[in-house]
Amino acid sequence: MARRSLICAGVGVLLAFSPGLATVAAAEDSGDPQARELGQEAERNLRDADSLRLTLTDRTASGSRDKLAWMDMALDRRGNCVASFRMGANGGTFDIVKRGDEVWMKADWDYWKSQLQGDGNEGADLVHDRYVHGTTHESAFKDFADACDLKAFQEDITVDVTTNDGRTTVDGTDVYRLRGAEEGIPTTVYITVDRPHLLVRSDQKGDGTDRTAGVSDYGRPVPSGTPGPRDSVDLSDLEKESGQSG
Known about the structure:
alpha+beta; 12-stranded mixed β-sheet; 7 helices
């Protein structure tokens, strides 16, 4: 079994997902000036945040093990992140912790079985419910530097809306309900009534899409705890255990 593919499978999921959330809502140039102003202010505040928590529920991913069905990720502008992911169709779950250039990744048996196919059982047995630890200087982990890059996410973000449908609440917070479209898919975003106006949720539904993305914890530090030695195994040691070092 190629031990590096065991790690890269998870990285690929992250990189494939990141662009999907980068444009929360895009719309045509016409529309309600007040709605557009609210969207622009929410966009500025999103771009200026030192840290964020991003969540995703994709209800169309339930039939595919290769699609991300759920995510909860805290990340900051220094490249630190803590995240949990669940794949569709019982494709398993995995967690990551990145602090500086160090990375820890832990997945369940269903995930290894799904991603490594015939080698899944062997991979799960070898890792034995531990985090696999490495650094972004290693080829197996280098892409985590991009996956946890809040700055890149902020550079791509747009919050353009055309219509204000009035006020409602999201998790007890008073928000404006604003409509637009992303690549032709109807999109509704929710922006706080109180200043600073903050984006808190984006719903997309139509043309085979049924997704809810959330944004919260503006400026809240990413948890700094990392897995201890008893709970993790270095990638180099894992390769030695598998007899594939060198």
